[in-house]
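re: that chain from earlier
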Amino acid sequence: MAQEEKFFFESIQDPRSLRDYLQSLMDGLEKGRIVLSTGGDELTLTPPGLLKLTLKAKRKAPTSKLVLKLSWKDEPKAAIRSEDAMSIRS
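^ sequence. v structure.
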């Protein structure tokens, strides 16, 4: 059985700081390597070409929530096949 590794980080940030985190995630996805670290904890992820995207949004006054989840199977890149792309616009 594979060893489970976990990483957790939670804080209050301004929109510019969040944008920087999201940009770093996008850069990591493009490079195929994301390194998360805080307080001595570190986790390296190697997302392949195909990922599952789950996006949830909820508003219930006075709080709104947006949850973005990416998941994938750690497979060799040779086993990954291309599928249709999705775009997100603002």
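The mean pLDDT is 86.
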